[in-house]
Design brief:
The protein is mainly β. Among the domains are: about 160 residues, no CATH class; about 80 residues; about 280 residues, Rossmann fold, CATH 3.40.50. Helix content is about 10%, strand content about 40%. It contains 9 helices and 56 strands. The protein has an 8-stranded mixed beta sheet, with helices on both faces. Helix 3 crosses helix 4. The longest helix has 20 residues. The radius of gyration is 31 Å and the shape is globular. The protein starts with a helix and ends in a 16-residue tail after the last helix. InterPro entries: AB_hydrolase_fold (IPR029058), Peptidase_S9_cat (IPR001375).
């Protein structure tokens, strides 16, 4: 009898244990696709009662979720939505393909529209524009306000929305008539050609016109309805033009694009000279550009013939623009060189040297000051006096000008720096020690298309600044507000290890934010001053994610640099078992430690979904990697070895079953570590370099420049040029140690990769083959750097999984891994 009881107890315990184990989902089965979603574009209704957002799945993003902020359990969903808006009265407008719906959220009453050709909601005017009709009956432009028809214009063919300005084109007596919606009594322009675009300024309008012979023109219409044609002031045909008004005057900065210029096309043979600083222009298809100052009323189009500074930047001043020569100092050692900046007088074309500019340029609201970062330190230039002030402030964050340009705020460690432009006084505003600041609610200014980076950066001193504070070392985030007028700071969100994203604000008030953690799906928290509450939790059916466990591993490399690794535990972890571990390499990755681990095909590293491997019984390790004078490869090897040493005491990790994977830069690191380490049983490397010398002296068709800048001053962070460090480049190239690899390696790439040449992967494969090493390489014919086709994403993910299952868990050897039988020869 005792034996029977014992048997019963053993069976019962075994059954309970079996039930507690997770059944690994086959993520390649379509039934497991699109299970999890991300919260995108959250928006609060004007009355503060509702929050709406878009659900973003792997393959679809057409579902809108509406949440009642007071009764959080009141949640509604709307499918098939392409756009959504809250109206001024907090009605919900849902735009679908060919139709729309407006819902009164208080009463639940809705109104529907169909036969919609196009529509746009002008938020500043609380107006919805709807172009409705059919190709046979014609289309009308309807103007709706809160579900009420305010106006209708018949035979409208198109409309343009530019901020709060709206234009529409009517067909009348065979003519295209251009109207301003807010002053529709009289057409502002008439033509028998097609109007392609329109912009308004307080001095007139400009419209794109396509001429009968297919040529493009640009027209300026003054307030007196007089039309001025750009083509009349230039003898050369152009295929495109952009225009921006200079200050408050009637001069314009015009960028003209010319096409099919035989002199700009590569010849046969194509000649590459050693002193060529414009190599990228060889790939512009014969297009060329010119910049001119256009004064329509004076019939003047001044082309600048001074080659020292042909490029122009409009910073909002009537008298001056910034000019520079993009190519003059180009030696391709940096991604962008320092530029010689000039003050260009629009009235007479005179240029005066200002100083050196870095790859970033910001300007304020008055057109007087510009900031740039030569040598990675901020320099302030005064266009009126040509004075230059080196501020001795590193460009660790963005600068913002006050509305009157009297002050500049710099984001920095611990808070903000406030610089006074007239006195030069610099004041530190302390906010939170150890945290770096980011201003969340700056004033959105104009960007600069004619400069590598920058634009008009402004802040409002009249309303509180919302500032996101981040502690990089400990991966902590906080949110606070700061009043520029009173100096008062208020903590809105205490520091947390959770990831805070998609912060919504209005008039200096924090409304809501999306927050998540690696084992906590994103949720929406709404704020009312220093009070807050959660109104929505996403992915509620993801019950397993809460069981995922991770640990932050602190370690130092051999140079004494403090680093952190993120170690994820198998989902059904128990101390009684030992598990294989896969290490993912790239650069610093510890800031990903609070990112929600979605399953399916959400991947930071091509081919590997962390969640799937945890469910499959693996540890997954993300160590930080930094680079130093030893070279990229040896630095990565040292960091990975130090990270592995830091977890060596964890007996649950089977150190005889370690895998290493990386993609792109991580693929290179995997190749190198594989040729210099015996700690791993299998490797997987995607789109990785193998020969630094060859890559250094290659032309990169993604960046359209010689690739050596990436090694000397870019991602590879080598200590200098190949000329000065020949042995170091060779020693850090995996191909030169290819015979030393001691474990099987799986390689893949896309043959259209124009960033890391696919031949780098082929070269490494050939080297491994010549040395009789175990390797399988896949070359996808229709992919580039980063796979786009879902079928290929699924394919590579399946093969990576099969690779590690076989080598680390004694799984079945897939047919594609078996090679060619000898009998086939």
């Amino acid at each position: 009898m005792k034996a029977i009881k014992l048997l019963y107890i053993m069976i019962l315990l075994f059954s309970i244990d079996a039930i507690s184990q997770t059944v690994k989902k086959d993520r390649f089965n379509p039934r497991y696709h699109n299970l999890r979603y991300t919260i995108m574009f959250p928006e609060t209704s004007p009355d503060g009662k509702w929050t709406a957002f878009r659900k973003t799945y792997e393959e679809s993003r057409d579902t809108i979720v509406l949440v009642d902020r007071k009764k959080a359990e009141n949640v509604k969903q709307y499918a098939g939505v392409t756009k959504f808006y809250f109206t001024g009265r907090s009605n919900l407008l849902l735009i679908r393909k060919g139709s729309a719906e407006m819902i009164n959220l208080n009463s639940g009453v809705s109104k529907s529209w169909n036969q919609i050709v196009s529509s746009e909601f002008v938020k500043s005017q609380n107006t919805w524009l709807v172009l409705r009709g059919t190709s046979s009956s014609g289309t009308d432009l309807e103007i709706w306000k809160e579900g009420d028809l305010a106006d209708r214009y018949k035979n409208v063919t198109s409309f343009f929305v530019k901020g709060s300005d709206v234009f529409f084109v009517k067909k009348e007596a065979g003519k295209n008539m251009l109207y301003d919606l807010w002053m529709p009594e009289k057409a502002i322009y008439s033509t028998d050609q097609k109007i392609l675009d329109c912009r308004w300024s307080d001095k007139g309008a400009s419209a794109w016109i396509t001429e009968k012979n297919g040529k493009t023109d640009l027209v300026y219409i003054s307030k007196t309805q007089e039309a001025f044609y750009l083509s009349s002031d230039t003898s050369r045909d152009f295929k495109a033009a952009t225009i921006s008004r200079l200050g408050t005057g009637e001069r314009f900065l015009v960028r003209l694009t010319y096409g099919d210029d035989p002199d700009k096309l590569p010849g046969n043979p194509d000649i590459w000279n050693a002193d060529d600083r414009k190599l990228e222009l060889k790939f512009h298809g014969g297009d060329s550009e010119e910049i001119a100052v256009w004064d329509p009323k004076l019939r003047s189009l001044r082309m600048d013939t001074d080659n020292k500074a042909l490029e122009k930047i409009n910073i909002g001043d009537s008298m001056y623009v910034i000019s520079y020569n993009y190519y003059k100092n180009q030696d391709y050692v940096h991604q962008y060189p320092d530029f010689d900046l000039y003050r260009y007088e629009v009235g007479n074309g005179k240029q005066q040297y200002i100083g050196k500019g870095g790859y970033i340029l910001y300007y304020g609201s008055t057109g007087r000051f510009i900031l740039s970062n030569p040598g990675n330190n901020w320099v302030l230039y005064d266009l009126y006096t040509l004075a230059e002030k080196k501020l001795k402030i590193a460009d660790t964050g963005d600068p913002y000008f006050s509305e009157d340009d009297q002050y500049i705020l710099f984001e920095t460690e611990g808070g903000l720096l406030r610089y006074q432009t007239d006195t030069g006084d610099l004041v530190k505003i302390s906010l939170l020690d150890g945290f770096h600041s980011t201003i969340v609610n700056p004033i959105q200014g104009e960007g600069i298309s004619a400069y590598p980076n920058g634009g008009q950066n402004l802040y409002s001193s009249k309303e509180p600044l919302i500032i996101k504070m981040y502690d990089k070392k400990n991966d902590l985030t906080a949110i606070l507000s700061y009043s520029c007028q009173s100096g008062k700071k208020v903590m809105l969100q205490a520091s947390t290890r959770e990831r805070i994203d998609k912060i919504e604000h209005k008039n200096g008030i924090l409304l809501e934010a999306c927050i998540e953690d690696y084992n906590v799906p994103a949720y929406i928290k709404v704020f009312n001053g220093s009070k807050a509450k959660i109104i929505y939790k996403s992915n509620r059916k993801d019950m397993e994610v809460g069981r995922i466990r991770s640990e932050r591993i602190s370690y130092k490399n051999s140079e004494g640099v403090d680093l952190t690794g993120i170690l994820y535990y198998p989902l059904d972890f128990t101390d009684l078992k030992r598990y294989p571990m896969i290490t993912i390499v790239y650069a610093r990755q510890s800031h990903f430690g609070n990112q929600y681990l979605r399953d399916g095909f959400f991947e930071r590293t091509e081919g590997l979904n962390i969640r799937s491997y945890l469910e499959g019984g693996y540890f997954v390790f993300l160590p930080d990697i930094v680079f130093d004078k030893r070279g990229t490869g040896f630095s990565a090897l040292d960091c990975v070895n130090s990270a592995l040493d830091a977890v060596a005491g964890l007996k649950s990790i089977d150190f005889k079953r370690l895998g290493l994977i990386g993609y792109s830069h991580g693929g290179y690191e995997t190749n190198f570590i594989g040729t210099h380490s015996d700690r791993f049983k299998a490797y997987a490397s995607g789109a990785g370099n193998s020969d630094l010398v060859r890559s250094y002296f290659s032309y990169n068709y993604n960046f359209l420049r010689p690739f050596y800048w990436q090694f000397e001053n870019g991602q590879y962070k080598m200590p200098g040029s190949f000329k000065d460090y020949k042995e170091l480049y060779i020693q850090n190239s995996p191909i030169y140690s290819v015979s030393e690899i001691s474990a099987p390696i799986f390689l893949w790439t896309g043959v259209n990769d124009r960033n890391i040449d696919w031949n780098q992967v082929m070269e490494f494969y050939i080297g491994l083959k010549r040395n009789k090493k175990e390797v399988v390489a896949l070359f996808y014919q229709d992919e580039a750097h980063g796979f786009l086709k879902r079928s290929n994403k699924i394919d590579i993910a399946r093969r990576v999984e099969q690779w590690f299952e076989y080598h680390l868990k004694d799984g079945i050897k897939a047919d594609w891994m078996k090679g060619i039988d000898k009998q086939d020869y």
